[in-house]
Amino acid sequence: MGGDAAGPGKGDPWYVRAFGPLYPLVYGHRDDAEAERVARLVQPILPPGAVLDLACGAGRHLRALAAAGAPAIGLDLSEPLLRAARAADDRARLVRADMRRLPFRSGRFAAVLSLFTSFGYFETEEEDRGVLVEARRILAPDGLLVLDLANSVAALRAIGYSTEREAGGFRIVEQRAAGAEGRRLEKRVQIFDAYGRSVLDYVERVRLYDRDELAGILGALGFRIIGLWGDYGGESFDDRAPRMIVAANRGSDQPRSERPESQWGGAGEGKGVREERVWSVGRDGNPRVVDRLHDVRLVVHVRQAADPRDRPKLTGPARRHLRPRAGALGGARLTAVAARL
Ligand SMILES: C[S@@+](CC[C@H](N)C(=O)[O-])C[C@H]1O[C@@H](n2cnc3c(N)ncnc32)[C@H](O)[C@@H]1O
């Protein structure tokens, strides 16, 4: 252990060394403007209630979410980044903790957001999975989890690629390699001062989860995937997409028959619900059942009404997107929506 001017010491795990005072320099291009795009993407699908920005860093998403009318609590392990978040907004609600042990009561949050590759950091997959177990614990029934990860296929294409650049009077050299038999992206980051002296040298080690693998892990924990995007503009996901942004519903611990009807996404509810399915609506406007993750533009929870004359009462984004589509769904009751067209 033992820190220096650039942050923590050599004995610390990489995710402590990497996210010190120089992190904003290395990732300066991940800025407020990008965070505002993320907020625009997730805001329409946030259920009402408390939101946690898990691994909030210097708080750029907290500010963007607050500006979009969805204030969140930020949690992070890094003191320097939490200080930066505080300096940027003295009213920010911040908690310092490890994402593997969340200091919140069960069911506290309506949504947990893990944004910009803040998952996959630990030595074992079991520890990574433990973060999702904790996230699920603190989510209320039917709460929303958003995981914004690098697209593993695109990330592996960058292996062997090196860059060198100047920022804030420092020279930053980055070299990418694959670790753990191609399942981990290992990026060596070296920072030199104006005299060529090494100030910081560490290796980021991020486990890459592909779409099906992540879907399997989330499914085994009880989550149901309700949205998948390939970038912050809401484009669909494919192998070339820069990001893999997954939205998942926590589900419930109770059997459906014992549950009160869920309110999800602020959309309308009905009585006499017989069945719930998840549909995706393609660009052509036609609904189809989501049986695997693919080209989800608009995810609609469809509840078949016992009485087809029951009209769905829709509010917010649901109203805008679903009214014209209700007919196409053949009298089905539409109760919730994750909208991004
Ligand atoms: C890639 S950064 C993203 C930060 C922020 N979400 C953003 O987009 O600006 C990852 C964040 O995870 C935090 N982090 C790393 N390990 C952590 C841990 N074990 N518990 C909580 N936060 C952690 C880091 O301090 C850092 O702020």
Record keyword descriptors for this entry.
single chain; alpha/beta; Rossmann fold; N-terminal domain of TfIIb; seven-stranded mixed beta sheet; globular; binds S-adenosylmethionine
Number of strands: 15
Please estimate the helix content.
10-25%
What value does the average pLDDT take? Answer: 78
Count of DSSP H/I helices? 9
For the record, the CATH architecture of the largest domain stands as 3-Layer(aba) Sandwich
Overall domain count: 3
Beta content: 25-35%
Q: Please write the string of helix (H) and strand (E) elements.
A: HHHEHEHEEHEHEEEEHEEEEEHE
Low-confidence stretches: 1-6, 256-341
Rg, nearest Å: 21 Å
Q: What is the structural class? A: alpha/beta
Instruction: Enumerate the strands of the largest sheet in spatial order, edge to edge or round the barrel.
Output: 3-2-1-4-5-11-10
Q: Which word captures the global form?
A: globular
Could you describe the 3D structure shown?
The protein is of the alpha/beta class and 341 residues long. It has three domains: 14-151 and 208-264, Vaccinia Virus protein VP39 (Rossmann fold); 155-207, N-terminal domain of TfIIb, CATH 2.20.25; 278-329, no CATH class. It has nine helices and 15 strands. The strands form three sheets. A seven-stranded mixed β-sheet has the order 3-2-1-4-5-11-10, sandwiched between helices. α3 packs across α4 (60-67). The chain binds S-adenosylmethionine. The site of S-adenosylmethionine has 19 residues, from α4.
